[in-house]
Amino acid sequence: xxxxxxxxxxxxxxxxxxxxxxxxxxxxxxxxxxxxxxxxxxxxxxxxxxxxxxxxxxxxxxxxxxxxxxxxxxxxxxxxxxxxxxxxxxxxxxxxxxxxxxxxxxxxxxxxxxxxxxxxxxxxxxxxxxxxxxxxxxxxxxxxxxxxxxxxxxxxxxxxxxxxxxxxxxxxxxxxxxxxxxxxxxxxxxxxxxxxxxxxxxxxxxxxxxxxxxxxxxxxxxxxxxxxxxxxxxxxxxxxxxxxxxxxxxxxxxxxxxxxxxxxxxxxxxxxxxxxxxxxxxxxxxxxxxxxxxxxxxxxxxxxxxxxxxxxxxxxxxxxxxxxxxxxxxxxxxxxxxxxxxxxxxxxxxxxxxxx
Amino acid sequence: xxxxxxxxxxxxxxxxxxxxxxxxxxxxxxxxxxxxxxxxxxxxxxxxxxxxxxxxxxxxxxxxxxxxxxxxxxxxxxxxxxxxxxxxxxxxxxxxxxxxxxxxxxxxxxxxxxxxxxxxxxxxxxxxxxxxxxxxxxxxxxxxxxxxxxxxxxxxxxxxxxxxxxxxxxxxxxxxxxxxxxxxxxxxxxx
Lengths: 356, 191
Hints:
The complex is a heterodimer. Chain A has helices at residues 3-23, 85-93, 114-125, 151-163, 173-181, 219-230, 234-244, 256-287, 310-318, 339-355, and strands at 24-31, 35-40, 45-50, 53-57, 70-74, 78-82, 101-102, 105-106, 132-139, 167-172, 189-194, 199-205, 208-215, 296-301, 327-332. Chain A has 10 helices and 15 strands. By secondary structure, chain A is an alpha/beta fold. In chain A, helix 5 (173-181) packs across helix 10 (339-355) and helix 6 (219-230) packs across helix 7 (234-244). Chain B has a 4-stranded antiparallel beta sheet with strand order 4-1-5-6, with no helix packed on it. Chain B has a two-stranded antiparallel ribbon with strand order 2-3. In chain B, strand 2 and strand 3 form a beta hairpin. Chain B starts with a strand and ends with a helix. Classes of the chains: A alpha/beta, B alpha+beta. Strand 3 of chain A pairs antiparallel with strand 8 (169-172) of chain B.
């Protein structure tokens, strides 16, 4: 074969490779109680939307008023404002937003809203037409302190992705944190996701899940307990937490009531961390058979871990316990809001590579 | 007439085709598919309910779930088994002591060794039995996936459309390092 012919063959092969690369899209989809997050292999943008919607009747509002917001319109005149705008309009109409998920799982009260959720996911993932799309979506581990099964939840989202023409597989949420943050430790570590509905924990040894469990105590639990203690509405506590909560640095709040809320929030954050650490020790002692002979990192992630100083409080609390494993480092995920989606993307890409 | 009774307070019963009601409640479900009603109750985590079919003369129980009663039965069974094993263990020790006359150190050591072995054996047996009971209980509680699949609502977005300006937050992120993907792929392949 002549040099020119060889070059032509190589060129064609390269073109073919590029074509294959373009046709296959890997997706990581984090399905959280508070946020839906999507990451794609062909984009550097990670997209986040609030996992809430507000059902309205067409007679409640002029369509022209909705030009700047995202909404779903049904054939029978039903309107659903989706994402963060749902909160704004809920205040205007004096209504409560609908949350498709509750305590980390699909809510039994909102089963009828699966179509709306499907459109929210479709919008978040973006266009996949004409491409072969593979998606890993997050699922929590079975909770050790609550009896709800994850089977139904897992199957509902499988059906949603199937209806969108996307190949899917479910991946444990806390393992996704390891996939995102522990490449330098060869995917060994403990991933903890403090979300809104659940705290998810996974112990990974060289990429293999050695233990995974969840607890039903997380951000919503903190808000509820704080609200109950102070006789307040939970939404108000959530708002104070999201706007002002921090564990380190100067507190600039002067309003006495807000200060009182922050003080209660501080106690409940500590109680949540203490509870989670105790459960990690107990579950590790009872269930981990793998001999972990090297020090492993603990990675903290999830929306509830966002306040400044959260990791320091975690370090302080865990230092008071005798752990059944050696810890090399306790660090925050590079971005606690996107770590799970990013880890799921890494996992999907790795699975796709394995298929080739 | 088929009647559903939920005595426990605080549940919001949401059965397809029926107006949502709060428990405690007693409803006529004659017009509904009983299996669908049971599945809806399961989905909502309601375990303590009673469904009865009655005619003019008598009441016929279709299905009744009383988790408390199951637990009592399991506890009783478990306790009986423990007692049986303790009695066996006691007899074996007596036999051993009878056969080993004298009080030498060697005999003491042998008896202690035997007791340790028996204790370990008993513990192992009891743990296994508890695991079997738990496994059986879990497999009974957990519906089959195929069974669940029938009741997962079909997704139909053909009659709906997404409109307006999107309200997503966008965060720029570095591209995934292909070496990290390779490493994970290799590790998972080893599994």
